[in-house]
Structure formats: structure tokens, C-alpha cells
Q: What sequence folds into this?
């Protein structure tokens, strides 16, 4: 039963699947089963799973020497997704199934001991890889996060027994899952100023930090932000679904065009937020890509963890360095955070006395760190709502009304940027300043305010960016003094966060 066969597999590397040739050779020599090509422990364990699964499915396991080479050998191979490809290669090499099967598909899946084929995380990345190679994708029919891609053939199986006929099935999908309705801003009593800030943030994808006492509605406001964001485009939905598929999480919301909302706990570690582990897994900020990452109780996060957010906030991606290379995940997200102003939470609350000393208050707010604060566009105070407003049956402004302003602002900004595109390339800073089209008097006013509030260069540009968004919502070509005043008011809060 000697023979050789090469089957197409793949390995996850960051936000993509890299093709891997699974070369199987059955040769003379002492009986044995070896896997080479930088496999990790999970890949090495495939020897036992494949051996038992083949026999359980009614196939013969050769008594000769079996060697599996995963090429290129310089690439680290991780996970249990090679089981299926190794089994197919072994069956073709020993003449037990049609050799054409090895040439037509990319195989990925984990084997159970009864010969069943199980789904693995990242099936969407494998599907994209198969399409790019001009191959069909063959995996478990139970791969719920699979997306039917144009030009991609599907060959789902439930067991190795299906390869005898061969007998293939459509691969499962979650597109028909019914999602819960999103919470509405109408349910939030009062806080109209904060709602206006959320509208501006959604229109311009700005970061927001809300400070206020417990029970002031910070979490309610943040959790309703996705309800006023525009739906994902088809391309964006696929991009978001890809990251969630790699992480082994549901892709249902992404396929329904909903933007992700992630709310990591303040005990989260650096790898949990940024990404990492072995194999490297996307973190919370990558899972929030093109959506919202909400950091509740921001001051309770470890300062060392928070400072790792600075580079992704600026560049829109996460770069994780490892000994065998660099892994990149996209992370363009809206940074939304909430914090109490002091350890007891009642500093500045007219109805509750704060029991913290001045040093405790300063130390607590400084835990966030000046460099991170400088990268957050808007810093707003959120006050507790009077009981009368809470008990009132009259709802405030709704998500639908706020979304109208968001969509109008985004559409106007797209038109304005398209018009200005032909006027020469500029850096992002120059582009923001030029887009405001400030009159000389307004420019002098803003310069005076920036100097008085000790704004850094980054703070100046971010404040102008907020002012530009305010003007876009009002569909004005230039930023006026009222826009500047509102933007400055959303940036400066009692001297904190400059």
C-alpha cells in the first residue's frame, strides 16, 4: 500500500489563512506515523485521531511507515484543522478513495474518534483562501459561521464515510438567525447633552469619555450607541465576520450588518484586549473592528494595559510580534469609556458629599494616563437624572431621530471629501485643518482657547475634527465659531483631560 499524495490545507495566521501543502507518503520501513514541518502539539496529536478515525469509518490503516510533511516548513502550524487533510491524503495515497478529490478542494476540519468531521474556528478565512486558490472548500457541514461566497464551491461532509461515494452537502450558515432588537436612546431619561455628544461621536467616529457618579446613565448611553450607527456594508460585514470567525465567535450579527459592540471587563489582560496567546488570537479591540469598544470603569483598568491602546487608536491596527514573525489584526473602532470621577464616585455631585481627599481624586483620574486621554476626542460630564425625569412617561429623543443626523453628517462628509480630494494630497493633520475653512477671526478665537487650555497639537487637531463633524451634521461647508465652542465644550471638562 505504498504511495504519495499532496492535499491542500491551510493555517490561520492573523486575519488570514495561509495555504499549506499536506504531503503524505506511505513508504517502506519500520511501522510509524510522523508529522514534520514545524507542527505544534495539537497538530502532532492528529496522528492518533487520524489512525482511530480511519478505522472507525471502515477504512484500512496501513502498517507501513507514514510520513506527513506540512510545507512550507518555515511556517509554524497550529490547531487541529489539519486532521481532515491528513486523512484525505492518507486515503488517496493508499488508493482507498478517488485521487481527484485531492486536487479539487482545500480540506480543513478536526476528526472525532468515530470518523466524524468537526468544524474548526476561522472557517471563513479558510473559505476565502480556497476561493483565492480556485478550489472548493471541504469541511464539516456543521460549520455555522460559514458564509456562502460568490464563486466558491461547497463540499460539506459529516464523516469520512462521505468520501466513498463521494457524497457532499451544503455547509451550514447562520444568516437566518433572528437577532434581538437593539436598545433605543428613547429609554434613557434626560441627558440630552450626552445624547447629542453620542450623535456627534457616531457621525464622525470620535472617541468619548464619560465621567459622572454611579447611576448617571453612562453605561445605558454607551450600550445604545450602535443603534444610531449606519449598518455595515457588504464588504465591511465580511471583514468583521472574518475576525469573529477566527476567534471562534458567532458571525450572526456581522452577517446581519450590525456593527459589533464589545465591553471588556476592567480585569482584562493585555493579550485579552490587544490580542495574543498561542496560537495568536484577536483581542477585544479587534473584535470591535468597525464598531464600538466600551471600557466601563476605565480608571479600574491596569495602567499598563490601557497604555497598549495608544498605538491601535492612532494606526487602526494591532501588530503582535512573535519569534516566528509578526501578526497583524485590524482594529478601527470607536473608543467609548466611562469612569467615576473619584474612588467614591460622587465628586462634583451636588446631592452626595464626596468623601475623597484632593490627592485621592487626582490620583484616581491620573490612572487613565495623560497620553491616552489626549487621544480621546470628547470628554463629557454625565449628571444623575432627577427622579421626576426618571418617572416621566415621556421618552427623550429616540435612536431613529439621532440616526438621521448621523447619516446626514456622514453623507455630507463623504461629499465634501470627494470634492476636496482633487486639491492636492495632504497629511491627515493638514487635511483636518484645511477642511474647517476657518475665518480669520474664528481662527484667532480658537488659538486663544487652545493656549488658555494648554491643548497639545493632537488635542487641537482632534477638537477641530469634532467641530468639522458638527458642521457636517448641519451641512455647512465651513466651521463657524458656534461649532468651535461646542467642540471645545465637549473637550474640556473642569480642567480634566486636556
A:
Amino acid at each position: 500500500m505504498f504511495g504519495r499524495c499532496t492535499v491542500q490545507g491551510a493555517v490561520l495566521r492573523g486575519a488570514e489563512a495561509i495555504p499549506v501543502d499536506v504531503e503524505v507518503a506511505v513508504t517502506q520501513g519500520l511501522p510509524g506515523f510522523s508529522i514534520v514541518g514545524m507542527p505544534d502539539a495539537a497538530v502532532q496529536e492528529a496522528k492518533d485521531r487520524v489512525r482511530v478515525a480511519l478505522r472507525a469509518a471502515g477504512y484500512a490503516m496501513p502498517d507501513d511507515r507514514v510520513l506527513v510533511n506540512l510545507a512550507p516548513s518555515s511556517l509554524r502550524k497550529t490547531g487541529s484543522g489539519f486532521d481532515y487533510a491528513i486523512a484525505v491524503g492518507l486515503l488517496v495515497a493508499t488508493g482507498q478513495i478517488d485521487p481527484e478529490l485531492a486536487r479539487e478542494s482545500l480540506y480543513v476540519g478536526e476528526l472525532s474518534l468515530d470518523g466524524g468531521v468537526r468544524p474548526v474556528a476561522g472557517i471563513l478565512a479558510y473559505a476565502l483562501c480556497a476561493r483565492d486558490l480556485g478550489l472548493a472548500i471541504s469541511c464539516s457541514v456543521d460549520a455555522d459561521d460559514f458564509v456562502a461566497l460568490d464563486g466558491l464551491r461547497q463540499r460539506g461532509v459529516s464523516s469520512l464515510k462521505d468520501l466513498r461515494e463521494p457524497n457532499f452537502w451544503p455547509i451550514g450558515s447562520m444568516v437566518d438567525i433572528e437577532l434581538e432588537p437593539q436598545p433605543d436612546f428613547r429609554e434613557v431619561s434626560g441627558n440630552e447633552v450626552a445624547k447629542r455628544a453620542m450623535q456627534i461621536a457616531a457621525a464622525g467616529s470620535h472617541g468619548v469619555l464619560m465621567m459622572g457618579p454611579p447611576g448617571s446613565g453612562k453605561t445605558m448611553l454607551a450600550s445604545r450607541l450602535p443603534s444610531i450607527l449606519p449598518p455595515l456594508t457588504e464588504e465591511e460585514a465580511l471583514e468583521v465576520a472574518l475576525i469573529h470567525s477566527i476567534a471562534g465567535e458567532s458571525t450572526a450579527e456581522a452577517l446581519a450588518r450590525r456593527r459589533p459592540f464589545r465591553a471588556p471587563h476592567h480585569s482584562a489582560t493585555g493579550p485579552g484586549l490587544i490580542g495574543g496567546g498561542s496560537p495568536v488570537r484577536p483581542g477585544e479591540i479587534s473584535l470591535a473592528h468597525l464598531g464600538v469598544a466600551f471600557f466601563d470603569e476605565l480608571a479600574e483598568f491596569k495602567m499598563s494595559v490601557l497604555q497598549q491602546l495608544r498605538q491601535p487608536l492612532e494606526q487602526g491596527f494591532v501588530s503582535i510580534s512573535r519569534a516566528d514573525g509578526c501578526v497583524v489584526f485590524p482594529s478601527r473602532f470607536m473608543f467609548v469609556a466611562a469612569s467615576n470621577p473619584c474612588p467614591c464616585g460622587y465628586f462634583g455631585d451636588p446631592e452626595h458629599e464626596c468623601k475623597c481627599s484632593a490627592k485621592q481624586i487626582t490620583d484616581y483620574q491620573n490612572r487613565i494616563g495623560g497620553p491616552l486621554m489626549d487621544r480621546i476626542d470628547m470628554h463629557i460630564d454625565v449628571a444623575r437624572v432627577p427622579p421626576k425625569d426618571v418617572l416621566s412617561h415621556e421618552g427623550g429623543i429616540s435612536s431613529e431621530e439621532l440616526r438621521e443626523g448621523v447619516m446626514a453628517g456622514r453623507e455630507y462628509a463623504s461629499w465634501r471629501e470627494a470634492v476636496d480630494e482633487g486639491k492636492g494630497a495632504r497629511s491627515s493633520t493638514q487635511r483636518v485643518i484645511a477642511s474647517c475653512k476657518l475665518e480669520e477671526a474664528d481662527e484667532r478665537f480658537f488659538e486663544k482657547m487652545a493656549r488658555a487650555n494648554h491643548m497639545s497639537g493632537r488635542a487641537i487637531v482632534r477638537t477641530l475634527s469634532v467641530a468639522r463633524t458638527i458642521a457636517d451634521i448641519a451641512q455647512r461647508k465651513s466651521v463657524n465659531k458656534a461649532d468651535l465652542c461646542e467642540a471645545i465644550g465637549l473637550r474640556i471638562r473642569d480642567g480634566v483631560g486636556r
Q: What stands out?
A: Residues 399-420 form the longest helix (22 residues). The CA atoms of residues 198 and 225 lie 7 Å apart. The chain has three domains: 3-163, 185-400, 424-498. The mean pLDDT is 90.
